[in-house]
Each structure stands twice: as C-alpha cells, then as structure tokens.
Design a protein that fits this description.
By secondary structure, the chain is α+β, with helices and mostly antiparallel strands. It contains six helices and 20 strands.
Length: about 375
C-alpha cells in the first residue's frame, strides 16, 4: 500500500513545528519589543548635545576650553559661566545668575561639534557653578558642565518646592486691545492667557514662567514672569501673564511660553503700524515750511527799503469829485418818455451852457424853401 502525499499529510507533518513556534513566540515578543525600544534610545543618547571642559577648576582671570558634540550643524551657541546651578537642576536663577559680560558665542561645524576658549569670571551668584551652553536661534537645546571658580563663595542650592510637572491643556490666546496712544507709538501690550495642569505628584507653588518675543529671524528675548498661586497635583489653573513690546513696534511677532527648559506654547501676534507717528511727521513737514515762509516774508517786508516821497505821491492822487450839496435824486428805471426828455434837456443845458434859446443854431439859420414857393 503506497502512502499518498496530500494536503492532509502536509498539515499533519507541519503541526508539531507550528505548535513549537506558537509556544516560543510569546517568550520572544518581550525581547523583540525591548530591542526595538533600545535602538531609538541609543540613537537619542548619541544625538544628545554634550559639553566637556579642559579643566574642572580655575581662578578668576584664567581661561578654559569648552568643547561639545552632538549639536545641530552650523548652529549659533552661547557660552556662559553661571552660579547657583548644577547639571541636574540647571541654571535656577536664569541668565541673571551668569557672568554675561564674559560670555562667548560660537558656531558649530557641519557635524555639530565646536571648541571655544572661555575666560573665567566670577558670576553674580555663589557656586556651585556650571558652564551653560545653549542655542541662540532655531530649535532650543542646552547642556551644562560642572565647574568650580577658585576663591568664589559657595552656598547651598534653594530647596525644591516639589516635583510637580506643568503642561498646557488648552490653546493659548492673547487678550486685550490697543489704545489710542498705541496708534501714536506707545508700547503695544497684551495678556497671554493659557490653562495649565499639574501632572506631577507634588504641588507647584508660585511657578516662574518665561515669556519670549521674537521678530523675524531673530531669536526670542526671554523675560521672567512669576505667577502667584499653587497648582495642586491633578488640578488645573488659568494663568494670564502680561506681554509688552517696545515703543513703535510693528509687524509679525512670535510669543513663546517656557517653563523650566521646555517651551510649552507659541502664539503669533500681528502688530499694526503706528500711523499716528507718520501723520505727525507729515503735518510737521507741512507746517514748519509754511511757518518759516511766513516769518521770512514778514522780515523781508520790514527790512525792505522805501522811497522818501512815496507817501506824498500816494496822497496827491486825484480822486473822484465829491459833491457838497444835497444828493441828486436818482431817476427810477421805469420812467415816462416825458420825464426822460426833460432829463435829456437838463443834461444838455448843463453840459452846454453857452447855448441860449435866442442864439440856438436852429433859430438863426434860414429855413429851406420848398419847391413851388416864391
């Protein structure tokens, strides 16, 4: 009896292998999942920006070399020596606790590496100190390296108020309107309103936010704004922070909100041009020349030379004869033919007084004879 190889035979032969695969697969899934997660983590660790120093301690007036890798290619970086800071907690007081006058700027190469010499200066706050490196433009990134300034005072870091974590829960918006003074160049002002929630296990008391204003391609200028209040774990709060631009500002601005080292939200703001200033200059350009012209004409009229007999000649000009008698009686427009003839006779007599009725030419001249008379 011959054995037939058909679908049923193949399924029966493959059933043990399939069962073995199904039994081993659940055991391999966790390892496969961890390997998939480990690869992005390793890449992120490799791409994270790092900072290294040529020496960990130096005195005021010295110089150290700061090097870094893993930064964005051809990025502009800022190097500062800051007090009251650690790599774990960062710069607690912000750039106000850094020696800004001794800071340096450097541009990374195409691979994101740099090397720059930094002079050692005493920061305004006591140590522990760090060398703080942060990007100036583009995507925000920063890194710190511990450093000790020899001879500089040392103090403990301020106590943590909690491990709360704030996150923006709703879209931010700008509230407020421009006044009439803004139309004439006064600083535009708004309120940045947003809602935050505490995602951490501890409350957050009096959080300090940073408001950044950026115009065009320039990096944002950060200013600290503290909100008075407490956000309990799992609770939310509505926060309004003032935002003000410089006088005469106009164009497209980008308002950023940052808490700690994380940018929470960004809000565009279009500011209109202060046309009142333009109107003022236009009026000034019209009024000033007109006033100067009037003053100049007045000066010319006062200093121009005058002739001696000008006033006498002007006074001797003949004028119309003024009758001292009673006013003549005017003739109405609608008058009779008789009165018109009498008026003409009076006028003729008045104009030609040497003619008399006896010596009129019509009386002395011989009358013409008609045909047929002797």
């Amino acid at each position: 009896m011959t054995r037939r190889t058909g679908p049923e035979t193949l399924r029966r032969a493959a059933s043990p292998a399939r069962l073995l695969t199904l039994a081993v697969l659940p055991a391999l899934l966790p390892a496969l999942f961890l390997s998939v997660l480990a690869v992005p983590g390793a890449r992120a660790a490799e791409s994270a920006p790092t900072v290294s120093l040529s020496t960990k301690e130096a005195g005021k007036g010295g110089e150290i070399t700061v090097s870094g890798k893993g930064w964005r290619g051809e990025a502009l970086l800022m190097l500062l020596l800051c007090g009251q800071a650690t790599p774990e907690r960062g710069v607690i007081g912000g750039t106000n606790s850094c020696a800004n006058g001794a800071g340096r700027a450097v541009t990374t190469d195409e691979k994101g590496a740099f090397s720059k010499k930094l002079p050692v200066a005493e920061p305004p706050d006591p140590c522990p100190c760090v060398v703080h490196v942060a990007t100036v433009t583009g995507e925000q990134a920063s890194a710190d390296a511990a450093f000790t300034v020899a001879g500089h005072p040392t103090a403990e870091l301020p106590r943590r108020t909690g491990s709360g974590k704030l996150a923006v829960l709703a879209a931010t918006r700008l509230e407020g309107d421009s006044s009439l003074l803004t139309w004439f160049g006064a600083p535009p002002a708004r309120r940045l309103v947003f809602t935050v929630g505490n995602l951490g296990p501890a409350p957050v008391e009096d959080p300090v936010f940073e408001i950044g204003t950026a115009h065009g391609v320039y990096a944002p200028q950060w200013e600290e704004r503290q909100w008075r209040g407490t956000v309990a774990p799992g609770a939310r709060a509505r926060i309004a922070l003032p935002v003000e631009l410089s006088a005469g500002a106009h164009g497209d601005y980008q308002i950023s909100l940052r808490y700690g080292k994380k940018v929470l939200a960004e809000q565009p703001w279009g500011v209109g041009r202060p046309w009142g200033v333009t109107l003022f200059w236009v009026l000034l350009c019209l009024v000033v020349p007109a006033a100067v012209f009037r003053i100049g004409m007045a000066v010319v009229d006062r200093i121009r030379p005058r002739t001696v007999g000008a006033h006498r000649t002007a006074g001797a000009r003949p004028g119309p004869a003024v009758s001292k008698g009673p006013p003549r009686r005017t003739t109405p427009v609608a008058r009779t033919a008789r009165s018109a003839a009498a008026a003409d006779a009076d006028a003729t007599t008045a104009v030609l007084p040497w003619f008399t009725p006896d010596s009129a030419p019509s009386e002395n001249r011989p009358r013409p004879t008609t045909k047929g008379q002797a």
